[in-house]
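My main concern about presentation is that the manuscript never shows what a single data entry looks like. For the editor and my fellow referees, an illustration may be useful. For illustration, here is how one protein appears when written out as sequence plus structure tokens:

***
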Amino acid sequence: MIFKKVNYKDLNSKAKEMYNFQKVSALLADYGFTTMWLNNDWQGADFIAVHLDGITDLKVQLKGRLAFDKKYLNKNIWMCFIEDGKVYLYPHDEVLNKLDGIKKYVDEKGGWSNKKLTKVQKSILDEYELD
């Protein structure tokens, strides 16, 4: 057979990014979105998700984990990552404002990310989980 599933851990970083984009795109299709990968980060976005309503579009930055960065502030960017098979898609600024300690760190250092969600972070992100 020519089709053999890949082991995600064996992929290089660019292949992991494309893999994650395809997984997220398939899930967003269930919500009425079509996605378009951008060759260059456009206004901070890796891809655009356009809804079939003809009105809604999202600029999405794809990450490997929960992350915030000063360069995404006030750009209406949505952040997306997959953890433990769950896809999270959240508005960068809105969620950052709910995490005071992290917001202060981003203001001072420029960026922040976490390899694994804490219980508090998970509870805040629950409403942004796509299923």
Notes: The beta strands are 33-42, 45-51, 57-62, 66-69, 77-83, 86-91, 111-114, 129-130. The chain has four helices and eight strands.
